[in-house]
Amino acid sequence: MRISRNNIAFAALPLIAAAGLAIPALGPAMGQDRPESILPPGFGEPTPAPTQAPRPRPTTPAPVAQPTVAAPQAPAATLPGAIEAPLTAPTPDATPTAVATPPAPTDFAAFVRADMPDYARRSLDRVGAAGPAEGAMGPRAFGRADGRYLEILMQRLRAPIASRWVSIALRRALLARVDTPRSVNGADFAAERSWLLTRMGESVAARAMAQAVDSEDYTPKLFEAAMQAALATGDPAALCPMVEAGAALKRERGWVLAQAMCTGLSGMGARAQPMISAARRSGLAGGVDLLLAQKVAGTGQGGRQAVTIEWDNVSQLTAWRYGLATATGVEIPDALLATTTPAVQGWRALSPALEPHVRARVAELAAARGILSGAALVDLYSAIEGEDDQSLAEIGIARDLRAAYEGADASARADALKRLWDEPKGYEARYGRLVLTAGAAARIPTTLKDPDVDRLVASMLSVGFDPRALRWRDAAARGSDAWAMLTLVDPVAPALSAGEIGAYSGTNDPEGRKLRLFFAGAAGTGRMSAADIESEARSLGVRVGYEDSWVRAIKQAARDQEPGTVVLLAAIGMQTQRWRGVSPETVYHVCTALRAVGMPGEARMVAVEAISRMSLDR
């Protein structure tokens, strides 16, 4: 089994299903654009924000209202229903400029300006953490789309989403070094991208996005997004370069406590403790929240106090509590972890502070959502196999995985794969196991007697091993799931007729839903003529000609050649964790739009994913 350190798959996206594909009205994004404060109840009433001071530069700032970005809260039991509304980009008024942070008594930005020459400063005209060479999209990913329109879409996107491949593509778009869209400030646009990545569970990418802007160019929105990303990664030290400016912005309580923590982390424990005591006396913070901040402050050189954290009276795990507990190695009870959003599972899967077997409990879910690659999962289980406690359940998985790679013969390796596939009970866990085993599945020879072709092909295609999967073309029975997936992924296969579509009779499909998804994928990836699409759509009851605000928006983005906007809208269309919530119409329009903006490979993978994941959604 190949043993190499963590590889994190580069990509990310969601879908509102049903017959009417619509997006909620362009107003507040159901708690996503203005979430609650970072700190939980018990910190006192919020302090009113002071009036913004103009930027201390030779510019003429235009005041812009900045939404507060804060900790993700536990999601509602069900997703809100879609509300039909016009989905048009707002008409820009005037292009706003950056809103500056008022100088603190010790002006951190002044040191930056003194030490950093102009040529080393990063422009707000083009902001991002990666370029095409690193796998991200290009600078024109969002084209001429209005920035306020894009921000609204990001604010209302409720993660996680159905498609692993759309999620991967969304991460590539959000991390990209793109031209700042009109009508928004570059730092604010970076904040929205960072905050969305945090909600998707992409903590490492979120922090990279927040750090793509120079500290002196931070806006109120970016200060909040940066704190969220730092907490998600369990790295409060990431706040220290901007802590003075953040605290001076509006004396937000999280930043005030961050001052004490950073003072302690810098080796001045004697100064940090009075700051913690002052926060306690003033009622700024108390209970476990203050104790965690005190524990962080005491970890620096010169820290002397031992702080014990008890969770008995804590009913909810906030981002503040999660981030500081992770940073200080405090174990979080499972009951509290159960109160969090799915994003926290991604944060934990990416956290180097946790033991490998602890990360493994959520890593396969993260892989199913596109946060981790199959190679990263293999590396993780390789590390687990060497742990001292051989009684861990994860050790058994690691041993089966090794057998799937290194079994005595092909039959033994295939048996190990079946054990791994049959074990998980949950829908996402079953798909995550396909991702884990993709490399081993690719090593099974096509000469194997009685192979499980459907799952072998699904496993390989879950990570994009399509050339290796196509070796099984002749072994896949006509009309089977494997046959349908290989038909969709084959870039040189001939066009499909209505008869070919009708030949598909996938397993576990009494209602014909997989058949309709197969048709939608074939039509969306350009594998059928226009006449056959029209006739087969009528026959199967798939309304490919129906248009609502979402359909019009994604079609327009495709015509305007905006791959970033297309992927963002694809995610909006797929806001459900299960493929049963994804309509065939959505699959058709997503695949069509992806192909139109030069992403045919992603379109084929989404079409294949519809078949493989529906086979697991039972």
Description:
With 618 residues, the chain is mainly alpha-helical. It is 49% helix and 1% strand. It has 29 helices and two strands. It has helices spanning 108-115, 147-156, 164-175, 186-199, 203-210, 220-232, 243-250, 253-265, 269-282, 287-297, 319-327, 334-337, 343-350, 356-368, 374-385, 393-406, 410-422, 427-436, 438-441, 453-462, 466-469, 481-489, 498-502, 513-524, 530-540, 549-559, 563-572, 584-596, 600-616; strands at residues 126-127, 178-179. The protein is globular and about 75 Å long.
Largest sheet entry:
2 strands, antiparallel
Strand order of the largest sheet: 1-2
Mean pLDDT: 82
Strand content: under 5%
Determine the structural class based on helices, strands and strand pairing: mainly alpha
Distance between the termini: 31 Å
Helicity range: 40-55%
Q: Assembly type of the shown chains?
A: single chain
Radius of gyration: 25 Å
Query: Which ranges are low-confidence, i.e. pLDDT below 50, for 5 or more consecutive residues?
Result: 1-109
> What sort of overall outline do the alpha carbons produce when their principal axes are compared?
globular
Q: What's the total helix number? A: 29
Count of strand segments: 2
Give structural attributes.
two-stranded antiparallel sheet; single chain; 2 strands; 29 helices; mainly alpha; disordered N terminus; 618 residues
